[in-house]
From TrEMBL:
<dbReference type="Pfam" id="PF04978">
    <property type="entry name" value="MST"/>
</dbReference>
<protein>
    <submittedName>
        <fullName>Mini-circle protein</fullName>
    </submittedName>
</protein>
<dbReference type="InterPro" id="IPR007061">
    <property type="entry name" value="MST-like"/>
</dbReference>
<dbReference type="InterPro" id="IPR034660">
    <property type="entry name" value="DinB/YfiT-like"/>
</dbReference>
Length: 179
């Protein structure tokens, strides 16, 4: 049984194996992003703060891309899913951030959730095949492949970093604060 905090986030397990702990922390970070973006309309998801062009909608779309990139594409070796498969990344390497302004809140949330769902399935498949030592099927340019363990740690870091941005953005939108 997973404990849930007052924001509805699953608490990472206090006593579990390595994979359970890593996945628990990643799910907590995912739930933090969901919490920081819940209930906002298009204006709230498009708001910026200070000199940054970063938005909560951009965070949702960027993290949807990052989920698909690391778990579906890198770990499992799959071709990019829509909408990533039609993007000219050389023309705009920040397309995920910029194009979020053209998407509705429902589209952004659905895109992010679908990416998270695919990621969870990809992690389950990789764990069944080789545990956290399972190497990504898509190699880096230098020939190396990160392990599932490395990818999980990287994704925890990615979410934690961006959830700090989400804290500031959400507070600037409606004054909501919290962990």
């Amino acid at each position: 049984m997973t404990d849930v905090d007052e924001q509805g986030r699953p608490e990472p397990p206090l006593t579990d194996d390595e994979v359970g702990t890593l996945v628990g922390f990643l799910d907590f970070q995912r739930a933090t992003l969901r919490w920081k973006t819940d209930g906002l309309d298009a204006a709230g998801l498009s708001a910026t703060t200070a000199a940054s062009t970063m938005t909560l909608g951009g965070l949702l779309k960027h993290l949807a891309y990052v989920e698909d990139h690391w778990f579906s594409r890198s770990l499992r070796g799959r071709e990019p899913h829509a909408p990533w498969d039609g993007v000219d990344w050389q023309a705009d390497e920040d397309w995920d951030w910029h194009s979020a302004a053209l998407d509705s809140p429902a589209e952004l949330r659905a895109l992010w959730q679908a990416s998270v769902d695919r990621s969870r399935a990809a992690v389950s498949e990789a764990l069944a095949e080789g545990g956290p030592d399972q190497l990504a099927l898509r190699r880096w340019r230098d020939g190396r492949s990160p392990s599932l363990r490395w990818i999980l740690c990287h994704m925890i870091e990615e979410y934690a970093r961006h959830n700090g941005h989400a804290d500031l953005l959400r507070e600037s939108v409606d004054g909501s604060t919290g962990e």
